[in-house]
Amino acid sequence: xxxxxxxxxxxxxxxxxxxxxxxxxxxxxxxxxxxxxxxxxxxxxxxxxxxxxxxxxxxxxxxxxxxxxxxxxxxxxxxxxxxxxxxxxxxxxxxxxxxxxxxxxxxxxxxxxxxxxxxxxxxxxxxxxxxxxxxxxxxxxxxxxxxxxxxxxxxxxxxxxxxxxxxxxxxxxxxxxxxxxxxxxxxxxxxxxxxxxxxxxxxxxxxxxxxxxxxxxxxxxxxxxxxxxxxxxxxxxxxxxxxxxxxxxxxxxxxxxxxxxxxxxxxxxxxxxxxxxxxxxxxxxxxxxxxxxxxxxxxxxxxxxxxxxxxxxxxxxxxxxxxxxxxxxxxxxxxxxxxxxxxxxxxxxxxxxxxxxxxxxxxxxxxxxxxxxxxxxxxxxxxxxxxxxxxxxxxxxxxxxxxxxxxxxxxxxxxxxxxxxxxxxxxxxxxxxxxxxxxxxxxxxxxxxxxxxxxxxxxxxxxxxxxxxxxxxxxxxxxxxxxxxxxxxxxxxxxxxxxxxxxxxxxxxxxxxxxxxxxxxxxxxxxxxxxxxxxxxxxxxxxxxxxxxxxxxxxxxxxxxxxxxxxxxxxxxxxxxxxxxxxxxxxxxxxxxxxxxxxxxxxxxxxxxxxxxxxxxxxxxxxxxxxxxxxxxxxxxxxxxxxxxxxxxxxxxxxxxxxxxxxxxxxxxxxxxxxxxxxxxxxxxxxxxxxxxxxxxxxxxxxxxxxxxxxxxxxxxxxxxxxxxxxxxxxxxxxxxxxxxxxxxxxx
Length: 748
Known about the structure:
The chain crosses the membrane at residues 7-27, 33-55, 67-85, 105-127, 139-159, 165-184, 538-562, 574-595, 607-627, 633-655, 662-685, 697-715, 722-740. The protein is of the alpha/beta class. It is built from 30 helices and 14 strands.
């Protein structure tokens, strides 16, 4: 393949654009909560298609001489975007009761979308002028995007997210330098130099819009999370993750040989349970700042597995900033430090745990999943509780606490035990309420729980302790009507009609535990009163945001893509217009579902996301290059057949191969995803061959459809699961199969 200047420009521009999207997602997920980050970035990405549409309506922009200026402008807008947006101090909680916030939201979308807009003009212009070389051009686009995924994650993990946001602009400036042919090359050179000069000041430029709750004594920002350590007192620090999740860090001198009167107290102790075992093996599921580990070691546990998906937190505890303060806790010979997704570790651990302990492991802390950050983890699904149950020793216990999810989790525990063949699941279960902490707690036993264990497992359930600790199940006569007791005794279905939250069990195919809100709770008065980022007691905020994005695109953006029909020259036929629309929806629907779905298999981490998206985009690039060697109809048939095969094989792969090492799970994922990616790279090229220079219009339609695809697929996924999302994607590709046989260009 001959490498041309045009392919190099596309490669560099695509590398920067997708890197920018991923890095911005990480920045704004930490600042605005991931649901709002999804909103602003999804709408901003529409700029890519709008840039292509603007080119279709204006021939002047298509001149090669304008590439250098447009690319320099793209890079400049990328540099300015995050600092300016954070300076606006957008507050989503006031969005619908403060007109200034609405104006700030509009300004944010324009600011962030501007770089996509100018970049879209360049991409579509090159596609239009060199459409006969589309297999090579589209390959360069996809391979640039694939490398951008890797670059963004490695840069965020290597130099920090704030600096990565500036470094990733360099490829665009290099492209601008190559596009200029005269002394104008000095423009991108000076802009590159400016970016380098600003690097040491990124922490000052990307100033958080959040008000810190205490003195920040340490910060770290990588592809997984933004971490802050708060100093509440000399004896108590707090580890904050993405301004959402919190984990305590307790001062400890390393001395376990102290009398009971000097032992460190814990609000949810596991002492009663761990003392039942002569050699207790303890699993801290989401160890965070090490509070669980300290408690277990203080109680004399023989072996502690501290499992935390964020490796930097473990590094802080073993040899970093938190090591000395926590008394070198993680280097105790009894502690095994594990930097891995908890579900993946539980599945592959070849022994049993006597006690599995989890405090407030947050499903609503976003995955590092680009702008598609509405995904959650798999800690609280029915299958997860099956895994935990099977991982317990014959007399083992699971103790799991959470502020919001317990009613739904109770439904999942009951379903899990039924699937495991337990005749009386309720006999294995006890549930408690800690009103002063606003927490609920589940106790699950491998064997049926006896009365003494139920009443003494945490705190003694008596009248004296009732103010701060009470037993909801098995319930005393005075508490028989409490919701938890009713869910367990009568089933969640009987309770759902009067419940204010969704009680239905989540599964690995529908792992959205945090989507607790119900549409029946949605009202204009409630929205105006407050708009919290996590509507655990109200309406389903994520679903509402998805509908808002869809409405905006369908009502405003899609009609704009009909404007070229007003011009008298040649135009796409209805079939051609619809073809580029359906392949855009189908591609993004599959991409969004695969990112989340295969995270279950290889575990939740920034490298998982990087692997999945890199393989999908890189294989699509290869498919684009080789597309002319395949019959027109083959890609569509192959994609649909793969979707069917994946629906059948994926559960088997998770069940039988999930115990393999991380390296093998990544290799297997690559082998499974690459084939569908290969064929997904062909439909756009096939459409280009039939549309000719109208491909810029097709690119504009495809851009708008991509945003629709990434949001539309979430509706069946939220409601019914990933399988239904894949069915939707398959239906769009089948429609594309029918449309590709039609004529795409009508004479003007």
